[in-house]
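Input/output pair, single chain:
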Amino acid sequence: MKSLEADAERAYGVVRDGGLVLLPTDVGYGLIACGDEGIARIYRLKGRPRGKPCITVANTAILDDVAELADDRLRVWIDQIARRVPIAVVNRVRRDSTLLARLTPYVRAQATTGRTIATFLNAGELVSRIAELALVDERIVVGSSANTAFTGNNYALEDVPDSIVSGVDLVVDGGPARYRNPERHATTILDLTVGEFLRKGIQFPMIEAAWHEFRDEALRSAV
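Output:
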């Protein structure tokens, strides 16, 4: 725990000061930043299309601030799923978000798309703790997987391309990722604005079954 806290504080210090960190998440190695230059470097190192937004590392407190949920029951459902497995959800941007209001125009453009925002919950102990530290300063941390664009996740630090490793300000080696598969799948992404999965990733069958159960129950209660 002491090592986790030390790593989290060190990593947050780097991103808070505008830098870029390579670190482990439960679904693979990722890149995180919270300033203009750090986020711009994510795109350069990955060769990521500028029109493809990053994902916000979140917990329920961050989700409550940045996202406007279509149904109050969704908040409970998201929390229940995120306690079990990693999941990314897309929601409408909350217009009165304190956290989003503090972003520079560039960071906001790369953290949102149109009127929606993608949040990554239960990403792993280290990156979740960094998000908590940022929240104290009323900041958000955004990121992307540590791989070149359109390739699968890297589950070990040695699998991350040298061009990415050499381009960051801090590297944290946390050993192999918790969730690994031959297909190199990343996080499952559910767009809650339309109720459709954008990506069938880690633990997809379980998440899909839970989503269908929730949706069916919501329809029955509406009758």
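The CA atoms of residues 22 and 171 lie 5 Å apart. The chain is about 40% helix and 20% strand.
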